[in-house]
What does this fold into?
Amino acid sequence: MIDVTLESVSKRFARGGDTAAVDDVDITIAAGEFFTLLGPSGCGKTTTLRMVAGFYFPTSGRIRFGAEDVTRRPPNKRDTGMVFQNYALFPHMSVAQNVAYGLKIRKVNRAESRRRVEEALGQVHLGGYGDRRIDELSGGQQQRVALARALVIRPKTLLLDEPLSNLDAKLREETRTEIRRIQKEAGTTGIYVTHDQAEAMAMSDRIAVMQSGRVQQIGAPQEIYHRPATSFVARFIGRSNVLTLPVLAGTAQTVTVGLPGGGEIVVPAPADHGLSQGETALVSVRPEHIGLTATTEPGALPGRVTELEFTGMATNLVVDTAGEQVQVAAVDVPAGITVGDQVGLRLNRERMWVVRP
Ligand code: ADP
Ligand code: MG
It folds into this structure.
């Protein structure tokens, strides 16, 4: 286990045009941490992970494992275990032969190899499966073999690129808990790539949210959920309304904004918001943090229901307030409310947050 540092790392591909696939990324991952790169398809997650693994070299910037500069070191000299989306197992070989592969390359002797394969299979709860053929295993079991194969070399870092994508939803949820347990027990530094925000939240110690090759925010799941840095992060993690509102006043930790249809509200803001009267603020508020009232009561935001969808756990509504389409997820909807009705929205100012564009 070792800490991993990316310093101003960029990657441009020869045939990638003018845009950088990874653009000036700074990340420090602590030894033993489960760290996730999260973002939509094409945002540069795989490219970043492959630079950590050594399959790509950065166009500029440095990568360190501990104090050592590994920027230009080949993959087989980095002590990294890698797990891919498609597992990349050898179908004609047994489970044990697959797991032993990395040891064979490293010329580990047979007795030691057998012992370590059994140990790795134990770590992924597949003890006794060594003689099975790969095609006799379920998708979830094949996934664990791929994990065992990565772990058997006792890597300092375990790199996982969307390893759950080929599993069905239920198995994906079970396996994500397993992967975190295995990473912690193996005592390795885990770097995980996914486009699935729920997966990232459930598994990670910290998350880097990426967009268009750049890191938008790094933080613990709760921090990213409750205090998104940008409107992109607010919308990408869960769902969020990002309202554009006029600034009436700003203090060190708050911004007072005007509401559509009159009224004002004091919203918590990051210390560096820099907003003052006359400017506009972007304010994030999640659909589940907006209350619904049947009639327009004082202090509530007046609006008209334009969409309504019952999902069982909650009712999702879209409410038009002076031209802003506000999403609301209400557990209790006043009886009889339908599309076209006038309603009031109660904003929970404690749960609102000023974000950057
Ligand atoms: P992600 O894993 O987040 O989906 P990638 O890291 O695979 O994203 O890709 C980031 C960007 O770099 C994309 O625009 C992709 O098309 C481009 N890209 C990735 N690999 C190559 C390559 N070998 N050559 C040229 N462009 C590439
Ligand atoms: Mg990818």
Summary: The chain is about 25% helix and 35% strand. The first strand starts at residue 4 and ends at 11. The first helix runs from residue 45 to 53. The mean pLDDT is 93.
